[in-house]
Amino acid sequence: MSGYDWVEKGFYYNSAICQFFGRKCRACAMCVEACPHQALQEGETTIEIDPEKCDRCGDCVSICPSGALGQKIENWRPMSEYIQGHESCVFVICEESSWRKLIEPQLLSEKCLPVGVEAIPVDQIGMLSEVDFAQTFLVSRKAVVVLALGENDIERPFARAAEFVGHITAHLFSEQNGRGATPLVSVIDDAETFWSRIVEIATIPECKLLPRHSLPEDEEKRQGFGNILSSWLKLVPPASPPVVIAHPGYAGIICESEKCTLCGACANHCKVDALRVLRSDNILYHTPIACLHCGACVAVCPEQALTLENGLRLDPSFFSEHVLTKCEGLHCSECDRPFTSLKRSLWVSQKLQEERGDDPIRRELLRLCPECRTKKAFFTYEEWTSKQ
Questions:
Q1: What is the reported pLDDT for 388?
Q2: How many whole angstroms separate alpha carbon 177 and alpha carbon 71?
Q3: Could you report the per-residue pLDDT of 17-70, keeping only the tens digit for each?
Q4: Which of 58, 126, 135 is nearest to 91 (CA)?
Q5: What is the pLDDT of residues 324-363, one digit of tens each?
Q6: What residues pair up with 276 in beta bridges, in sequence order?
Q7: Are residues 34 and 168 in the same domain?
Q8: What share of the chain is helix, strand, coil (3-state, %, to 5)?
Q9: How far is Cα 121 from Cα 369, in angstroms, rounded to an integer?
């Protein structure tokens, strides 16, 4: 199905940062697994949508780790528009239809929200992801309550994203805020529990460690979330060893340097720049916060040198680029320019020797950069022809 089908249902699909798109090996397909209506399926090269099955619940948008899926639904408002200008409130986020049906009638009779509590009934809560809840806490500085009152809502991606942010804020701020391990972002799945807990939640003091911030400019989903968490970690000394929060869309990569030949296949298959090869110095760089835990790099590594560590690590190193491995470089024997790693050259030479036997000319060509190799191969061929 074409990209038109996505637009027709009010979504956009950015194949440039979709780790599934164009892959020969199976990579990320979290949106397919999350869709409760089986409206998404894995095509040969892309994620396809069946418009007849899609009800625009937004679960695919919420769970997409790279932000390749987003919404273009008319009148849909991002969370930033609801919370802007309401700083230092306890926010209660709920699907608008559930709010009207289960909460509002009680507000019109015997119940009332405590002072300082701001209700945010949103249309299509399923679109919200961890970056939305992190932004909300950034503005609140007190507490955020997410109501998952619909059938099976507690298992939907938006609720799991809120719980994820809740675990992060609990580890970073709850103790300093005098609340023990109380999540500052919590999920409640029934109206009765909400009314019994909201008075206590309303008494949670402002997080003094968190300075007042205006919302950041529009950023890509992963970059925006990473920037918020990175700023929080500057306020709180990391635990030792660092806390790891489990999540299917976040991971760090470990490389066995003795196996890696720095061929670059892993970086070539990573569309989100979690891996980058600097050829001039033969260095493989890794930025953990960018990693989607899709496994494409592990699948294509010919040496099986890479493994994934699931989860988001609450440590500053997780949010910045660092050297994953480094190899000694090989300089061209003709022009002296670095062009590959020594280990890679030896690996290729060994494989060719095993398959085709030893050849002095081939051995010499392998020590040349691509440009010099082309020139040398041409002249070698001319010389060989003249002797025939």
A1: 47
A2: 36
A3: 898 888 766 688 899 999 999 999 888 888 888 888 998 899 999 999 999 998
A4: 135
A5: 998 887 778 888 777 777 777 777 777 777 777 777 777 7
A6: 285
A7: no
A8: 40, 15, 45
A9: 62
Q: Which residue has the tokens 């950023």?
A: 219
Residues 6+ apart with CB under 8 A from 154: 148, 187, 189
For residue 144, what are the β-bridge partners?
Answer: 91, 185
**Tokens (6 digits) for 258:** 């003795």
CA atoms within 13 A on the CB side of 200: 10
Crossing angle of the two packed helices 221-233 and 130-140, in degrees rounded to 10: 40
Tell me the three state secondary structure of residue 296.
helix
Say yes or no: 208 and 345 in one domain.
no
- What is the Cα–Cα distance from 196 to 166, expressed in whole angstroms? 19
**pTM of structure:** 0.85
Distance CA 329, CA 317 (A): 26
- 113/91 Cα distance (integer angstroms): 11
CA-closest candidate to residue 282, choices 252, 323, 321, 318: 323
Above 90 in pLDDT, residue 211?
A: no
Name residue 365's amino acid.
L
pLDDT grade for 132, boundaries at 50, 70 and 90:
very high
The CATH number given to whatever domain includes residue 55 is 3.30.70.20
Domain that holds residue 39: 3-71
My answer on whether 254 and 203 are in the same domain is no
